[in-house]
Amino acid sequence: MIDTDELVRRNAGFADGGSFAGLGLMPRGSLTVIGCVDPRVDPSDVLGLELGEAAAIRNVGGRVTPATLRTLGMLSKVVQARTGGPRPGGVHYAVLHHTDCGITDLAAFPELLADYFEVPAGDLDTKAVTDPVAAVRVDVGILRQKLPAGVLVSGLVYDVATGLIEVVVPPTRVEV
Q1: What is the value of pTM for the model shown?
Q2: CB 135 within 8 A of CB 129
Q3: Kindly report the CA angle at 173 between 170 and 175, in degrees rounded to 5?
Q4: In whole angstroms, what is the distance from residue 101 CA to residue 105 CA?
């Protein structure tokens, strides 16, 4: 078990490195990754991202749920408050799902999943819970419907056995 003392020790090493100094609230690369909470799939490690380069939203399955959309809406207001308008430069949202995801185990609990996605249990098949490639397509489709025109959206699947990602949906701009 990693206890609090260990966390404090590790943090001291991080702080001594100083890599956090001068970082701004907005990601340098205008990238936001929507990914899973699975500890094998940390977006920074899997995608080779540096501290401050991207924002990450992590939830069960890395899914685009109504709660995820609300979070994105809140983040856009933070950007507006800090900059007086939309984020300068291009914005890119990358959906990152993965193989062997624990959300597939939740298929045995349709009421729980229906609540998570805020849909009737009869509509769960539209969420492709057991297929990460299809699920990426579903979630990218939701983002394309809900995000403003001009935003880039892509979809990736990480293979936990090989360590490689597959580009399922190449970056494309949201159209009106």
Answers
A1: 0.93
A2: yes
A3: 135
A4: 8
Residue 87 pLDDT level (bands cut at 50, 70, 90): low
Per-residue model confidence as pLDDT tens digits over 2-26: 999 999 999 999 999 888 888 888 8
Note the pLDDT of residue 20: 86
| Two tokens, residue 13 | 């090493």
Q: In angstroms, what CA-CA distances link 96 with 29, 53, 62, 103?
A: 17, 16, 7, 14
Angle at CA of residue 44, ends 173 and 115, nearest 5° = 70
Which strands make up the sheet holding 165-173, listed edge to edge? 54-59, 31-36, 92-98, 152-158, 165-173
Distinct helix (H) and strand (E) counts, the chain: 5, 5
Q: What is the pLDDT of residue 57?
A: 98
Structure tokens at 42: 């940390």
CA distance 98 to 41: 8
What are 128's two structure tokens? 């492709």
